[in-house]
Amino acid sequence: MKIDARHTFPCAPERLWEIYWDPAFEDRLRQGSTVQREVLEHRDEGDVIYRRVRNTPQRELPAAAAAIVGAKKLVYEQETRWDKKRGLVQWQVVPSVLPGKLDAKGQLRVEPAPGGCVMVIDGNIDVHVRFVGGQIEKAVVAEVEKSYDRLAAEIRRWIADHG
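RE: above sequence
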C-alpha cells in the first residue's frame, strides 16, 4: 500500500531541516502524542545523520489482525538516514512482530515552493500475511499518515512560535 503525503510550510527548506532535527522540537512532539517515541540511537556521521526510534502506538490493532500477529499493538522501530547534501531522509520500519512479513520503507524530502517549502513523504507498506495483510497495511498506513499530519501541524506551530 502506497504512502504519499505532502505538507507545505512558510519557511525555507534549510529552516525546516533545522526544526526537524532540533532536540527541543523532538521533545515538543512527544507531548500529547498518540505514539510513544524512544530514541534508541542517534549518530552524526558528517554528511549523514542516522537515527533509530522505537514507536509504540496507543491504538490497538483490529482484533482479527491482533490474533494473527500475536500482539495488540504494532510496536516498531524506524531507522532513518538523513543525507544532508541530497536533502533526503530514507526511512525503513523494523517491526517487532511479523519478521519477514512486513516491508515498510520510503523517503522524505523537502523542496522549495512558492512562499516556503513542501515536505514530501512517499513510500510503501506491504504486509505478506494471508487474509489480514490488507487490514494490517491499512492500520500501519493510517498510523504513518496520522503521524506525518501531526508532525506538520507541530512544525507549523513551531514556526509560529519561533519564527
